[in-house]
Specification:
Helix 5 crosses helix 6. The chain is an alpha+beta fold. A hairpin with a 4-residue loop joins strand 7 and strand 8 (198-203). The protein has a single domain (9-224), classed as Lambda Exonuclease, Chain A, CATH 3.90.320. The protein is built from six helices and eight strands; from the N terminus they run βββααααβββαββα. The N and C termini lie far apart (51 Å). It is globular, with a radius of gyration of 18 Å.
């Protein structure tokens, strides 16, 4: 059983999501809307993805993207319910053989490394960064309060390929710290591959990724407002 920490949950309210020019925004206060951190990072990487689509072709790219999105959404849901101490085995998502395989591999690490669940799938924002987003998980990992992002992949990834995941996590770190006054100590990418390999990468040099994030936001705003 995972311990649920309720103390800060009432501080975060669900926010309306809007889409404008292929950018997701969150309505945070009256008429004020902030772009989502995932949209900002996607904007920064737009050329890389465009080059990839051109290389493999639109049809193949669409199939790969759809399969990856479906896989990730299903596994996220199963893990979410499991960490809530819910009946994950009754979920339709769990009936997919690949998801069962990936979850069973992840479960061993979830059971031994994670506890004290502070937030799950929580919408939050930062007035300092003028950003918003939805964090996967804030909990203790090996006893250290952490911002956690669950990822899926066909196989393990070189650590340098995870850079933007940590940039994204630094945004959630700022949002949670700003709202609660509680400062998590590390960022954690929890990646589950289709063959059952589990890759857990931790970073505590949060300011490095936050600096990169600020640069991304500046470039996004300059382009949007040009």
């Amino acid at each position: 059983m995972f311990t649920q920490i309720e103390e800060y949950r009432s501080l975060f309210k669900e926010m309306q999501r809007l889409n404008e020019d292929e950018v997701r925004y969150y309505k945070v206060d009256g008429d004020v809307s902030y772009p989502s951190v995932t949209s900002v990072i996607s904007f920064i990487n737009r050329k890389k993805f465009a080059d990839w689509r051109a290389k493999v072709g639109n049809e193949t790219a669409n199939l790969i993207t759809k399969a990856a999105t479906t896989r990730g959404t299903k596994l996220h849901r199963v893990i979410e319910v499991y960490l809530q101490n819910g009946d994950y085995q009754s979920l339709n998502e769990y009936k997919t053989p690949l998801i069962q395989l990936m979850f069973k591999a992840a479960k061993k690490q979830l059971d031994t490394k994670l506890n004290n669940i502070y937030q799950q799938e929580t919408s939050m924002s930062s007035s300092r960064l003028c950003l918003a987003g939805t964090v996967d998980l804030i909990c203790e990992v090996d006893g250290v309060l952490s911002i956690v992002d669950f990822k899926t992949s066909k196989e393990e990834k070189p650590e340098e390929w995870l850079e933007d995941y940590f940039v994204q996590l630094s945004a959630y770190w700022a949002m949670f710290s700003e709202k609660t006054g509680v400062v998590p100590k590390q960022l954690v990418v929890f990646l589950v591959a289709e063959n059952g390999d589990v890759q857990i990468v931790k970073k505590d040099n949060i300011m490095y990724y936050l600096k990169t994030l600020r640069n991304y936001v500046s470039r996004f705003i300059q382009y949007r407002d040009a």
